[in-house]
Specification:
Length: 497
């Protein structure tokens, strides 16, 4: 009988090891790379949808579905060689025609959140089955970096055409895992794709992504063995986890930012509130905040204070617009000059634990300068929809970041940026953003970013607060985890020991 029990135990262990269970801090939005916006959606896509290029731990751009690339002499076209023998989950070929279809879909599809990233693309040529040429209206420095994210993700043209607007409900890509099911607010299940081009690096049969908004509950599920991996551990939980040999911790400085986006022109609410219509009130709001204290209290020190779309340690940080210090008296004076000594506004915040803490600390700090802030807690995907419609006054929003600084800037502050929730549009800033995108010279790009930082600091459509540390925790049995600053969980190489 003992041998039967031993075999049963061994079988159970093996079967459970075939499934990787990942806890997410939010429920992703639509699982269509063209339409998607959320950070957690990108984590799921890392298992579902391969890209033309990827990033390594040092943010170097490396091939994935592509094998090589070559710029033209005038930097206005990019020729990409593709990996041979790749198929989508429905068996269709991933070839040059498929890449052409995808890039055109990203660029032209109604409601696409990739259109701003690919706006400079004029046409795409399928030169031969394994060669694609991307033609540009002007040189575009961030293009390769753009193709390491959702704009570089390839979906099956046949499936996309058949499903239309419903494609995101059952995505078909060419990644290591194929879609099985999704139950909103509960789980997303994917299973191993047998014909994956790099299948030797895949060691799980299934992945279950579970959205658990509360960081404490997420951690409890890890401790109890219900989850194998959790992203965005609460900083306050790190010390105890370090002392528990059952788990390991990974820390990465993000390439994005945490900030407060202000409605300065997205809708008529901008003019109905002094925060939106008067830059003096926005300056007073910023001066009421102590970023270092916010980092210490809200993030347990697990972040770097910042006031721009990139961190002060980034080579493209605008040094002419340094981090302002808290000055409550000056804030009060500015409010008096603006004729609103006690302005009131509503601060919309996602229901995640860290966003809630930030909102409460900001509320308390700004009160000392005379601000009356009401906090509106909103489910994350819903908050994005409200922001898109301009149905907010101020919004606690974390941007997960892009490898090229343009990905943190253009989409949010260009006049037609797809996620320009602030409704910000300024001609001189627009010209500088264009200059920073069209030059491949790093020195010229840095000079343009410096000038943009100076103007944005005056206008304050976004009050940048800090740059988080990605904090991950997982069972000590899990190995092969790669810590890339974009915060994506790459499943290639992961295995349970």
């Amino acid at each position: 009988m003992k041998w039967f029990v031993a075999i049963a135990i061994a079988f159970t262990t093996t079967a459970s090891a075939q499934t990787l269970r990942i806890g997410l801090a939010e429920d992703p939005d639509i699982l269509d790379p063209t339409m998607a916006r959320t950070f957690v959606g990108r984590i799921v896509f890392a298992g579902l949808c391969d890209k033309l290029f990827d990033l390594d731990e040092k943010l170097n751009i490396v091939p994935q579905l592509a094998t090589s690339h070559q710029w033209s002499a005038d930097n206005k076209s990019l020729t990409i060689k593709l990996r041979e023998g790749v198929t989508f989950h429905d068996g269709e070929k991933m070839d040059a025609q498929a890449v052409k279809y995808n890039l055109e879909r990203h660029k032209n599809m109604k409601g696409s959140n990739r259109r701003g990233e690919l706006a400079v693309v004029s046409s795409i040529d399928a030169v031969d089955p394994t060669t694609v040429r991307i033609n540009l209206e002007a040189p575009f420095a961030p293009l390769l970096a753009v193709l390491t994210d959702r704009s570089g993700m390839m979906v099956s043209p046949k499936a996309a055409e058949a499903a239309g607007e419903k494609f995101g409900a059952k995505p078909v890509c060419s990644g290591p895992f194929r879609f099985v099911e999704r139950i909103a607010q509960d789980r997303i299940v994917v299973e191993r794709f047998a014909n994956y081009w790099n299948k030797g690096q895949i060691h799980f049969e299934r992945i279950v992504y579970q959205p658990i908004v509360d960081a404490t509950v997420r951690l409890a599920n890890l401790r109890s063995g219900q989850l194998d991996f959790i992203e965005r551990v609460a900083p306050s939980d790190i010390p105890n986890l370090r002392n528990d040999s059952r788990f390991k911790i990974a820390k990465i400085v993000e390439i994005g930012y945490q900030g407060i986006t202000i409605n300065v022109g997205k809708s008529d609410l901008a003019q109905k509130n002094p925060l939106g219509r008067d830059p003096r009130v926005r300056e007073a709001f910023e001066l009421s905040l102590d970023r270092e204290a916010i980092v210490k209290v809200a993030m347990e020190g697990e972040a770097q204070a910042g006031n721009q779309w990139v961190a002060p340690s980034n080579r493209f940080y605008g040094k002419s617009a340094p981090l302002p210090k808290r000055n409550v008296e000056r804030a009060k004076q500015l409010l008096k000059e603006a004729g609103v000594p006690n302005p009131s506004f509503t601060l919309m915040t996602p229901t995640t634990s860290d966003a809630q803490r930030i909102a409460q600390i900001v509320q308390a700090m700004a009160k000392e300068a005379g601000f009356d802030i009401k906090i509106q807690s909103t489910e994350f995907a819903t908050s994005l929809n409200l922001a898109d419609k301009g149905q907010f006054e101020a919004y606690v929003l974390a941007w997960s970041g892009r490898a090229d600084p343009d990905g943190n800037l253009h989409t949010m502050l260009a006049c037609k940026g797809p996620t320009n929730y602030a409704g910000y549009c300024k001609d001189d800033v627009e010209k500088l953003i264009t200059e920073s995108r069209t030059s491949l010279d790093a020195t010229r790009r840095a000079a343009a970013y410096d000038k943009i930082a100076q103007q944005v600091q005056k206008d304050r459509p976004i009050v940048y607060l800090f740059h988080r540390h990605w904090l991950w925790a997982h069972t000590a049995k899990l190995s092969g985890l790669r810590t890339v600053p974009d915060g994506m969980v790459r499943v290639q190489g992961l295995k349970m020991n």
